[in-house]
Amino acid sequence: MVPKLEVQALSYSYHTMEGETQALSDITFSVDTGEFLAVVGPSGCGKSTLLSLICGLIRPETGKILLDGTPVTCGDSRIGYMLQKDHLFEWRTIFSNACLGLEIQKKLNSGGKERVKKLLWQYGLESFSDARPSELSGGMRQRAALIRTLALEPDLLLLDEPFSALDYQTRLSVCDDISTIIRDRKKTAILITHDLSEAVSVADRILILTSRPGRIKDTVTIQFPDKADGPLARRNCPEFSSYFNEVWKILKDGI
Is 83 helix (H, G, I), strand (E, B) or coil? Predict the structure, then answer.
């Protein structure tokens, strides 16, 4: 069975007038269909660079990136990218913001609009369809940003610290909300985060990178009881602290 995503011997360096800075070195891993992978590592180890490579924004110096067995290209419509900030436009309504990706890809037909309406209804934003972003809380704005991404029906979701701009209480709630949405829709996802608790609470597997140049230090498979069906429930399980300590020890030894 072909993995949803294959990253093979990936390396990348940034080049400036001052010289070369190697960001990633010989990165190899795969992600199965429906799997939620978290990537953690020290600041500057190349986590965001890895996502930029996976979505085709930049090209690797060496290595391959395959989605469903075929190479990823720049602007690959099979991949959805959710950034740290929601990037909702104040002059557009929430419905119009949620339709933006479809509009850019010239897919804003009647079917696409109905899909957006259904997503807004499913995730509690239907009554805010005509509102402006400034009228929504931070958590609601992130939910709207996720709907904008899901409306494109991507095969792979990339999440680059999407909760980091929120206060702690809102962050916990929105992380639980959005990760539950992703799991319910059986989406394959990769989350970049500095928060080890967040990684343990959402992931099926955690990829741990070394300091720059980022290399794979280790991976940790996460398994919780079926009754722990969301990040908040996982945080209350006795396994949570064990996984946290295991990841922290590997990460600390890799710095």
Answer: coil
Instruction: Map tokens 């069975």 to a residue.
Output: 1
The amino acid occupying position 156 is L
Contact 84, 162 (CB under 8 A): yes
pTM above 0.85, yes or no: yes
Q: Which residues of 84-123 are buried (b: 16+ CB within 10 A; e: fewer)?
A: eebebeeeebbbbbbbbbbeeeebbeeebeebbbebbeeb
Query: CB-hemisphere CA count at 13 Å for 235?
Result: 13
- pLDDT, one tens digit per residue, over 17-64 is 777 888 999 999 999 999 999 999 998 888 999 999 999 889 999 999
Backbone angles phi, psi at 178, to 5 degrees: -70, -40
For helices 138-150 and 110-122, the axis angle rounded to 10 degrees is 140
pLDDT tens by residue, 178-202: 888 888 888 899 999 999 999 999 9
